[in-house]
Amino acid sequence: MPLTITICNGKGGAGKTTLSVLLATAFNHAGHAAALLDRDPQATASRWLNETGDVPVAPADGSGDHRLLIIDTPPRLDSHLLHDALSQSHIAIIVTSPSPADLWSSQDTVATVRQHLPAGGHARLLFNQVQARTVLARGVDNLAARIGLPALKTRIGRRQTFQHAPLLGWSALDAVSREELLQAALEIASLAPPPPASS
Ligand SMILES: Nc1ncnc2c1ncn2[C@@H]1O[C@H](COP(=O)(O)OP(=O)(O)OP(=O)(O)O)[C@@H](O)[C@H]1O
Ligand SMILES: [Mg+2]
């Protein structure tokens, strides 16, 4: 069974699809064969990957010879598509901006993750669209502590190249963004390593 990672947040526009696709690409670059399962009816990740071909899109049952499966989910906490994704996952990554309002609204997502992620699963916050040297960037650790869920040490910056990626793919990204994504992928893999290639 592949290591399965659900990317979620009940709030729209947090960066779920962007980071689902780009983390899957980063995992491939790190040598883990990753595929993406698009459980969002908006199908943005599928369209993106049809354009760029950076990562295989898994069929609805998630089958295939990948060792790592990333699931993009809709921005609705009451969606059975989100609940199903969580219940088949080893890891849940809640993508949020560092703004206090967004983080507070992520608290409901944390509760949903705790309800559906199987026992022994790992859940982490991932800060996205962080602007370096701002008050918010400096305060994220305090905010995360108040949510009561650990955050990945790696944060993803806010950069325009992320907005070019759906058309141009991984090659559109600047070197700093690629490095952040690779670091985040390695941190996630260290929570629960993907199965070896022979299994
Ligand atoms: N790190 C980033 N830097 C700059 N722009 C970003 C970053 N991450 C995401 N974006 C932009 O934010 C917007 C929303 O991103 P995305 O579609 O990935 O969010 P989402 O959570 O999947 O939205 P939805 O809830 O509608 O599915 C997009 O225009 C995307 O390009
Ligand atoms: Mg999306």
- The level of helicity is 40-55%
Percentage beta strand:
5-15%
Give the termini distance in whole angstroms. Answer: 8 Å
User: Can you tell me the CATH superfamily?
Assistant: P-loop containing nucleotide triphosphate hydrolases
Say how many strands there are.
5
The computed structural class is alpha/beta
**Uncertain runs:** none
Mean model confidence by pLDDT: 94
| Lateral strand order in the biggest sheet | 2-3-1-4-5
Rg: 15 Å
CATH architectural category:
3-Layer(aba) Sandwich
Element order: H for helix, E for strand: EHEHEHEHEHHH
Number of domains: 1
Write the CATH fold name: Rossmann fold
Number of helices in the DSSP assignment: 7
What binds here, in terms of ligands, is: adenosine-5'-triphosphate, magnesium ion
Characterise the protein shown here.
The protein has helices at residues 16-29, 44-52, 80-87, 100-116, 135-147, 161-168, 175-191; strands spanning 3-8, 34-38, 68-72, 91-96, 122-127. The chain is globular and about 40 Å long. The chain is α/β, with parallel strands linked by helices. 43% of the residues are buried. The model has no long low-confidence stretch (mean pLDDT 94). The protein has a single domain (3-191), classed as P-loop containing nucleotide triphosphate hydrolases (Rossmann fold, 3-Layer(aba) Sandwich), CATH 3.40.50.300. It is built from seven helices and five strands. Bound molecules: adenosine-5'-triphosphate and magnesium ion.
